[in-house]
Design brief:
The protein is an all-alpha fold and about 150 residues long. Helices cover about 75% and strands about 0% of the residues. It is built from seven helices and no strands.
């Protein structure tokens, strides 16, 4: 009985320490975050990494609200593929039409959303964003030139 307890505690400590070590390795590879919201934004999965970078800037509450409103509006303006589904039927033709429309206008919607969000930023924030984009591109180039694989930490 005592052996089981000791073994389970030992296993729990081992697993916990390996998880902490793995997280520390990820944090070291990413760089430390100066602001708490930056860390939380890096941990969240964003479909648009540029928006994640914008949200990691030192935005005022008003700017943050405007960015969120722009993103919400962009999402609402997308064709809803769910319209092809009803309680009893699936409209294959409508699904195909909506999927094509969504794909064809994807870049235009994304560019418009970025332009709207960019207009919310101050000149200093725009300069900081440009610096962040340049750094990210340099890291990608360095990574591809060195033949290193991407870090898979989440």
């Amino acid at each position: 009985m005592n052996k089981k307890i000791i073994m389970s505690l030992g296993l729990a400590v081992l697993l916990t320490s390996s998880l902490v070590a793995g997280q520390m390795n990820c944090d070291k590879n990413r760089g430390s975050c100066a602001k708490p919201q930056q860390c939380s934004m890096k941990q969240k999965s964003h479909r648009n990494p540029l928006i994640a970078q914008i949200m990691s800037l030192d935005l005022s509450d008003e700017q943050r609200d405007k960015v969120r409103a722009i993103m919400r509006e962009n999402m609402q303006n997308m064709p809803k593929i769910s319209n092809a589904f009803s309680e009893t039927n699936f409209d294959k033709e409508l699904f195909i039409k909506l999927s094509k429309e969504r794909q064809e206008k994807k870049i235009e919607r994304k560019a418009q959303m970025i332009a709207s969000v960019y207009a919310v930023l101050t000149p200093a924030q725009k300069a900081e964003l440009r610096k962040m984009i340049d750094q990210k591109m340099a890291m990608r180039m360095e990574s591809s030139m060195g033949g290193k694989s991407k870090n898979s930490c989440k």
